[in-house]
Design goal:
Layout (H helix, E strand, L loop, with lengths): L1 H11 L1 H39 L3 E5 L15 H6 L4 E15 L5 E9 L10 E4 L9 E5 L3 H4 L7 E4 L2 E9 L10 E5 H8 L8 E6 L5 H11 L3 E5 H15 L2 H30 L1 H9 L4 H34 L10 H27 L10
Parallel strand pairs: 3-8, 5-7
Antiparallel strand pairs: 1-9, 1-10, 2-3, 2-6, 2-9, 4-7, 6-7
Amino acid sequence: MIPKLAYRNLFHDRLSLVVTLTGIVFSVVLVAVQFGLYLGSENRIAAMLDNAKADLWVVPLGTKSFDDPSFLSGRERHAILSMPGVASAEELVVGFASWRKPRGGSTAALLVGSNTAKGMLPWDIVEGRMADLASPNGVAVDQTYFSELGISKLRDKAEVNNLEVTVTAVTQGIRSFTTLPYIFTTLGTARTLLDAQSEQSSYMLVQLAPGSDLATVQKALAARLPDTEILTHDAFRQRSLDYWLFETGAGSALIAGAILGIIVGIVIVAQTLYASTKDHLNEFATLRALGASAGYIHRVILMQAVLSAVIGYLLGMCLSLLVIEGSKATTLLILMTPNLALMLVVLTVGMCILAAICAIFKVTRIDPAVVFSR
């Protein structure tokens, strides 16, 4: 009888039900979008590090993230390769550049030069080939930034730091957290465009030989290269995330927005459940007079809350998925993961149960004699 009674109480007042579901749906969508943006931001910040795949990163002192580049001295590679336990050391040249559009105007970009023969960067190429970047001043850009870069197709030409380049490859979905377009090219071309020395690089990517101890090699490299920092992949990744999400305040703002959504949802659901319970006080008093225990009444109210949560969650998730799908054509990246979906279930049910507690306090004070005074 508890589910049946809860269902009838819930759907008896359709207007109250609509208000309750509106609050839940609003909360679910806001939390889903805010946390989805947070996950999307993490994905973008760490994308370069995750795709470069290195056991250790040799970076200039004080580097805050991948998108905060400066140049090493240029003598690190030979010192790294001579270290026992090191299998390989690949260079990355990263720097800010000015992209001049073919039809006039310019924009800032982040130039990334790598050993394209090893196939590390870029990834997700949809037009052209990795090998095409070896052509004179060949570069790869992402489709998302075509409009910002003033180009429209493969083989278009532009200027980077006043030198002509040709788009010889196009990627899909490689977008930066800072909104600056990534421009990929070879090591030699990147050094030419950034006016760097022939041995200079921004980062060294170290792969260990099988069986080597990561901590031992890291300590030895730190002793041999005192003017650099030797970071594990996870350490550099976490440093980048902490800098962009928390030191800049971007991540805190997203989390604060999600918390606001939860609070608004709790307030709206609590108010409507309380009002619904107050409107049915005589019915609950009748049940008490007929011998129903306080616990029975409490379970009815909690079942109403759970039913509201289930319906609101399903509607909210459908709307959230529509928002996520609509964002795919924009520069925003909103991710929905199984863990996030499960967290939303727990949050929604918990929010509604917490809201139901306010109504339960009201019912607890019901006097069964009320039914005889009507």
